Each structure stands twice: as structure tokens, then as C-alpha cells.
Fold these 2 entries.
Entry 1:
Amino acid sequence: MYVYDDYDQAIVDQRVAQFRDQTTRYLAGALTDDEFRPLRLQNGLYIQRHAPMLRVAIPYGHLRSDQVRMLASIARRFDHGYGHFTTRQNIQYNWPKLEDVPQILADLATVQMHAVQTSGNCVRNTTSDQFAGVAHDEVLDPRPWCEIIRQWSTFHPEFAHLPRKFKIAVSGSLEDRAATWVHDIGLHVIRNAAGEVGFKVAVGGGLGRTPIIGAVIREFLPTVDLLSYLDAILRVYNRYGRRDNKYKARIKILVKAMTPAAFAAKVEAEWAHHKDGPTKLTQAEIDRVAAHFVAPAYETLPAEDAAFAAEKAQNKAFARWVERNVFKHKQPGYAAVTLSLKPHGKPPGDATDAQLDAVADLADRYSFGEVRVSHEQNLILADVRQSDLLAVWEAAKALGFATPNIGLLTDIICCPGGDFCSLANAKSIPIAEAIQQKFDDLDYLFDLGDLDINISGCMNACGHHHVGHIGILGVDKSGSEWYQVSLGGRQGEQAALGKVIGPSFAQDDMPEVIGQIIDVFVENRQPGETFIEAYGRLGIDPFKRAVYKKVVAHA
Amino acid sequence: MHKVDAKHDPADGAEAQQMQTHGTTGQPIIVDGAIVQDTWQLINDDQVPEQGAVIVPLSVWLKQRDALRARAEPVGVWIAPDEEVEALAADVASLPLIAVDFPTFIDGRGFSTARLLKDRYAFTGELRAIGDVFKDTMFYLKRCGFTAFAVRADKDIHEALKGLNDFSEVYQGATDQPLPLFRRRASVA
């Protein structure tokens, strides 16, 4: 994991001082609301329904145990005792006081954390694969590149006030677990035919009002050119992205309007001017950053621990948890464990201060003191010995983190929605909870298999509803809350956007509507077929017929 | 666009001295890290006065270039966010001052305009930020190559001056410091 040196620390400390000064001047009336808003947003501070909401950056989802304990301490001292992990690997606090925020930032800085650029029209936290560095299918570790991008993007003066927010994701595996195709820039670390390392560069993906899958504008970018090429993309976007309409201001609209080929040509022309300038990366810097991400001191272990195998064979509940929540590790004898923050009937992604402290203890005891956050809003212990899995499972059960539902119907991605967010048209958490309660039978859930339900409370699509196998979008119809359902979306290498099934539904009908969709799948599936595979074969019509046959109230 | 008004701001002794060395009346402005009195008049239309140093809109410059060049006193040009700096490329070497307008500080196009003027077209005159300029915009402006800052009349210019130094260290290369930290970190480590 990256560890700050004096330079990194000085930059974060000075940011705290700057924000303290800005807050003081705002409270004294020297900064207006309109002036303070963009400044506080670039420190992750929103003004929400109940209180300000503070979003703290977790760069590419990596945390040390001391940082997790600080997050717990902040939840305890400045919030109502919990935090909410987001779909971009950050954490949000829903109840801090504005006056306390400078102190919260100062406390975060003591453990090398910050809230820099977690909101606002700037380059946001760079996200990545939660299994980076440990995944069995990894080609190259994306984390050094994430950190290099983090440093480049932090207070980048030219791109401080872009037309709109800007999100970059990096993946280095065969399977894309970082949603790279729906990011403003998606980078795939690859090796070319000559064996050189570089990036495949996609731009203009995104969800929101105009969901688009990203377009590849460069098949291979040498690693040393990463930052100069990003500068070129951002400069073209900063100059030519629309600023007259915030719904047309993302880079995807520019890329679409210009066509990806014309956009790529413009970027290449811009890049040619400065590609060999001082921003060109040096091997020394690449090596310096990569040295922070070397493998921990693994023991030499057999590929499969005998006691672990025996326990799995005789303990059905444990075996079920292993099947869903344990991910195959590249190091023999180790495994990556996902702690589910989706217990049935609780807000997805929430963790209490006590749970966070307990996770930090688990990390210290079983996983080299590190914790990760996934964009599916779960926590990961990435380096657990197989022989410790039973103990970790028991501990996770005691914490309420052992729901064996990773990738299943109840592992719902969900934004905070109308209960907390002032942008939302409709609530989202109660919909997730009602669906989780309807599908509370674990045997049935396992039988249904892989199924992504994603819920967003508004068009901004923080819950990634477009790429859910079943997507749910909250809409406002003359003051009441309705829900639009889409089918067939997916994330990963075969990323696709869901199709809207038809008119929207009332909140109370949602569990039944989901039930009807699931019934069509169960009645029509072939042996071994997943929901998304069956949907691909059947098309949307049988689902549509079932859902609208018995007309529940719809508008 | 902010109209320049010729009101005199009360200044302490040190500033009064600096103002004298810079001549005529005008608003206080930050140039090269010091508060001085502005000697330029900002023009918003094609009515360019005979007398005095003026900063004219890019469109006016492009239409009246020869006449403006024949003027006895200096002429600078200001650029709006949606205007392309490329239009000025041929004139950059001969202009003493170029201003970039920020009608609102959240419109960051002027940052790219400034960097292109300095980094690509090698502009060496005074690069001035005008419009919505105040303390919290200063550091980024400086990094993009601005050397002069027409701080909004209703904002505290002394506070704004401090904003130039919000950070003592930066990660990425930009106009004021082209070497990214990674090229300097190695040499000082």
C-alpha cells in the first residue's frame, strides 16, 4: 500500500489549512453560498437533507487498519455512529456539522487520508479492481498506475473546474471488476505483442441520463506516456466540453458529438505537442510507486489446505459462504474474503463504528493489516490463509458481515436515495430492503445464482442501474415516487445497458414485480443458465408479458 | 466582464510607493506578487479611446489590428472563455499584455487558454486574469502561468495575495513549475 512521504503529507496538511480558512471566511460572510459551494464540493462536502454530507476519499479502495479505525472514530465522534461505502470505493458520512469538517479533515490527514476532489467538477477518486494484486486472473497490477494518476490529478491546476465531474477507472485483469466501460476514462493495463506494458484507453463511457459504453481511442499507450496522454484528453474536454447544460456536459456527450474517431484525432494532435515534455513518466518514478505495492510476506503453503477442505465438505453453511464470498487468490494457500455489507433488511453499504473497528482487528489478525472497498459496496480482506477462513467466517458471522450473498440477488448495489440525498427523485434503500426481505431464503437465492440488482434514486445513476441485470430507477411523477425497471444490463468485459421494460411501478409493488421477473427466469431457464444468459436467449417480451399481465398499479 | 472604475483605493505607505513607480490611476491589482496600481484600461466594445494603455476584446483586435498597432500607447488583448487562443497565435510575440476573462471562476477554460499562451506560443508579456478572481482562485491561476491578477473590487486583495501561496508543493508539472514532483523528488530524496 502507498505510504506518504513528507511531500504527500505536506500537500494534504496544507489542504486542511486551506479548507479551514475557507470555512471560516464562509461562516464570517466573506464567501457567498455560490462561491463556497464549488470549494466545499471539491472537499467532498455536500449540503444534504438532514445535514452536510462528507465524502472521504479511499483511493482505489485501499485502506490500512489504522485508517479504518480513524473512519470508525469519525463515525463515533462526528456522525451517528456509522458510515456508508459508495459505488466509487469512497465512504460518506451523513451527519457531520459544517463547523466540524475542518477538524475531521485534520484527523483524516493524521492517517494519510483526505476528501480531496471527492465531488465537484474535477477529476475524482481513481477507482480499481478490489482484488488488484491478488486476483488469480490478473495480468498486471493496476494499483501503481492508480496512485500515479491520483498524484497527477490532485490539484491539477488546469483541470480544477471542468465542465462536469470526471471519473477514471483502471483494471488489470481478464475480467473487468472496475466498471471501466462506464467511466469517463477506462484504462486497461495490458501487454502488447512485443511484451511491453501499456494501456488500452477507452473514453466517454458513463451512466446517468445518457448511458453510453466507452469507446476505445487508443489500443496501446506506452506506460511512460500515461500522464501526458491524460493531459491531452482532459485539455480537449476542458476546452470543448459543453458548459451550457449540465446534463450535456460529461465527456461522453462530447465524444459522441465529435465521434470517437474525431475525438481521438484531436487528442493525438494535442498530445503531439507535449508528449515528450517533463510530464513523461520516468522508470524511476514507476519503480518508486510500484515498490509500495509488492506482495506481502506470504508463507509457502499448499494450494489447498487439508483442514479447510475437510470443513467445507462437512459444513454446508461454511461451504456456501466460501462459494459466494471467497475469491480465488493467485498465491497458493491464500484467499480473498468479501465481507458482505448487504445483510438482508439493512441499508446496503452501511457499517457502524463498532463494525469498522472489528474489521480493522480482523485485518490485523488475518490479512496483513489491510482492508479494501469494492464498488459493489462490500469490504474485502485480500490476503487470508485458507487455514484461517473458518475463523474469519465465524468472526464475520458475529459481526453480521457473513451473509453469503456476493453476486446473488440480494447483493444489491444501491445509492443513498431520497432518504439522504437532495438530488434523488425517490427513495432507494427501502426498495432494496423490501426485495432482500422477499428473497430471504438462502437456498432459493443460491438456486437463482448470479444476479445483479442495481438501484438508483434518480437519473444520476449512482446505483449503476443501467448495468444491473435488473435495474431499478426512481422517478418522480407529479410528486409521488415511482420505479422504472430495466432488464439486460451488465458490467464487466461484456458491459451492456439495460432496456426499460415498460411503465413504472409503485413502491409497494416492487418486490412482487421483481418476483414475477424471477419467476419467468425460473420457469424458462435451461440447466446451468444464469439470469442474464436466459435473458439474452429469451429477450424482454416474456418478462414484459408476465409483469404487465396482472396489472398492478402502474402509471 | 467587470467594468474598470477609476476609483482610488486607500493604500498604505508601501503600496503608495509602488503605485507611484507604476504611474497612472486605476484599481489596485496584483502583478508579479505585489499589489500595484493598474495602468491599463479594460475596453468592452469597439470604442477604443485615443489615449492610454488599453486592453481590447479579441474580436476588436482581429478587426482593427493595423489601426491598433499604429496607436502611440500600448494595446493588450483580452480573451473570453469560448474564444480560441489559436486566433492570436501570430500576434503573441508582439503583444505586451494578454488578459483572460473568467466570467465565473467555475469556468475553467481560461486555465487551458493561459497554458497554451505560455507553453505553446511562448508568450512572455503580462498574462492577466480578469473577472471572477479572488483568493481561492489564485493558486491555480498562478500555476497556469498568470502573472497578474485583477482581483474583484469587492474582494480583499491582501487576502488574495496570500492565496498565491496556499500550497508549498505540487505534484504535477504546469506552467509555473514544469517539472512534476517525481522529477524533483528523485533529485532531493
Entry 2:
Amino acid sequence: MYEIVSILLLLAMLLSMIRFLKGPTLSDRVVAFDVIGIMALSLLVILALYFKRSVYLDIALVLGAIGFLGTTVFGRYIEKGI
Amino acid sequence: MVFIGFFFIFMGIFSFLISAVGLIRMPDVYTRIHAGAKSPTMATILIITGAIFIEPSWMPKLILLAMFILATNPLSSSVIARASRKAGVPFSTDNMLDELKDFKEKEE
């Protein structure tokens, strides 16, 4: 059951990766990167359920913080440059 | 309990797939932000709810994670939309509503 869920989530990540590779502007790529980060966070929650270890939830929390920080920094870069 | 949890998790995966299809098919940066901000937030909340149903002893950490996602995800999409509007990323069609145009002319 967990395998089916993980494969479907990886399919969604691959479909978002198409936009990440194709995107005409930088903003498209940043949006796709943000969505892929959120999907990786959900995959970590499913991994924690699969291995029955709650350590993965801490990793998911840190990944969410890092992803939010990266998206904000990219927004500042789009707006003003370095 | 496990059955209800997997029901919520499958609802979340379905929402993620809708979001990925929307990211591919939408014509514009701003509509792609629309597809890439709301639906993944709801999907993550649904998956965390399913995890609470499967493992009830992890409830504090999972609720903390859900609150974090609910706080930061709309904020980051709003930052991207504001930045790409200020950088002049073009809209897709001519007959759109651009309420920020007047403010920009006043600033200049």
C-alpha cells in the first residue's frame, strides 16, 4: 500500500519536473521547485509511516524551513538581482 | 483507523496530481502560481491528517508540521508573484485585469 502511494507521489514529482525543465522564465522554474519541495516533504511523512520512525518528521520540518527560505531568496533575486 | 488514514492519503496524492497537471497546462506564470500554491497546501494537510489517523501517538509533531506548512506556503507563493510582477514577467492574454499598473505609473 505504501509502495503505491510512493510511486504516485513520484509520478507527480516527475510531472512537475517537466515544468521545471521547460519553463520559459525563471519564475516558472521557481514555482516548480517550490512544489517539488512540498512533495518531497509529504514523501518524508510517508517514509516515516513506512519505517515506523518519527525521526523523519524532524527532517521534514527542517526541509520545509529550508525550502521556504530558498523560495524567498529566489523571489528577492527575481525582483532586485544580486 | 488505518483505512481512514489511507483514504485521506489517497485524497492528498490525487490533489498533488491535479497540481502537477495544472503546472503543466496553465498558460501563464501567475496562473501557474495559482495551481502551485493552493492545491499542494491542501494535499499536504490531507496527508498529515491521514498520518495522524494511522499513528495517533505522533500527533504533536504532525500538527506542528501542518501549522508550519499552513503559515509558510501561501507566503512564499505571494513573494514569487510580487517579485515576478515587479520584474515585468508578461501576462498571457491582452484582456486581463492588471490592477497594479496604475500604482506603478504613479511611482514613476
